[in-house]
Every structure is written in structure tokens, then in C-alpha cells.
């Protein structure tokens, strides 16, 4: 009888050991899976370029740009950014820049239905590719006359120059806008907050 009980005890002991070992193996297997899944997510986040609308979403988080992002939304330009991939640099006027526009001009603008003309005006603030503050300084200093010329998404030009420790953007009508702050959004592009409104036209930036 004692021998039989001993055999039963040994069977239960081995069964328990195998059960514990099996549980440990399953846990190790699960631990191995998690880093692999995280790695996949990491690889996906590093894919370039990202949808262009992600940059606009980042800009909407900045309260200083609420007037500009609202203009983009009203114009319908934001819808064109949805789902389209690409890296952009945007020169975005701060709210204070819009506050300086005469009320009469604002009222007249509000009475016009948003269309291609408004979209074109906003495209003038956008540049394909990533133009960081450092890249702008390098291009300015590498130019012969200290003026870096580049083309916007509208197809018209802007110029960048250095004035003291600031970088200034000049439009085709000669209006100047200082870059106040700059943000580089990895995988999305970059945006610079400027202190004035820019206007496309038919001048040559002088």
C-alpha cells in the first residue's frame, strides 16, 4: 500500500513539474513576442514620408497658430492634405500678424467664398521638403548675395536673409516676416512661426 502511494505521489510531482515548466515556456514565448511586435511598430513609425495632414495636426496643437490653421481649414486646403504623403515646410503667421490686418480687409475677406484663390494664398506659405532653421542659414551664407531664393508650393518664390541673429523671409512684393520660432516635427516636416503676412504677386522680391 505504501509503495502504491509513493508511486502516485511521484506521478503527481512529475506532473506538477511538467506543468510549471510548460507555464514557464509559454511565458518566455510571450515575452519573446512583445519586443518583436514593438519592433514592427517602431519600423512603421520610421517610414518616410508620413501623410502631410500630420504636420497640420501638429500645428493645430499650437495656440499661437489658431488663426492660420483656421484659414487652412476654411479654405478646404486641409482636405487636400488628407492621405497624401510628403514632407513640407510651412511658414505660418502668428495670431498677432493677423491681428494687425485692418478690420475692413478681414470683413471683405470673410464675405468671399473660399476657393482656389484662398488656397493659392496659403500654398505660398508652403515649401516641399524640409527647410530647418540650420538649413536656411547654410543656404543664405552659401549664396553670393546673402539671399537664399526658393520656390513655394504655389510656384512663386520667397527669399531668406539674415538680419542680426534673425532669419527674415521676403515675399515677391518686398514684405518682410521674421522667423520667431521653429519646430521640427520628425517624420512630418517643419514649421516656422513668422511675425507678418506674406503675399504672392508679380514682383521680384526687391
Describe this structure in words.
The protein is 48% helix and 20% strand. With 206 residues, the chain is α+β, with helices and mostly antiparallel strands. A seven-stranded mixed sheet has the order 2-1-7-6-5-4-3. Strand 4 and strand 5 (166-170) form a beta hairpin. The chain is globular, with a radius of gyration of 29 Å. It starts with a helix and ends in a 12-residue tail after the last strand. Mean pLDDT is 74; it is low at 1-45 and 103-114.
What does this entry show, briefly?
By secondary structure, the protein is an alpha+beta fold. The chain has helices at 2-45, 53-60, 66-75, 77-81, 95-99, 103-110, 116-123, 133-142, and strands at residues 88-93, 126-128, 148-151, 157-163, 166-170, 176-185, 189-194.
Q: Tally the helices: what do you get?
A: 8
Q: What is the H-and-E element order?
A: HHHHEHHHEHEEEEE
Shape: globular
- What share of residues is helical? 40-55%
Mean pLDDT: 74
**Low-confidence blocks of residues:** 1-45, 103-114
How are the strands ordered across the major sheet? 2-1-7-6-5-4-3
Largest sheet: 7 strands, mixed
Q: How far apart lie the N and C ends? A: 109 Å
Chain oligomer state? single chain
The fraction of residues in strands falls at: 15-25%
* DSSP, total strands: 7
Q: What Rg do the Cα atoms give?
A: 29 Å
SS-based class? alpha+beta
Give descriptors for this structure:
206 residues; 8 helices; disordered N terminus; alpha+beta; single chain; seven-stranded mixed beta sheet; 48% helix; 7 strands
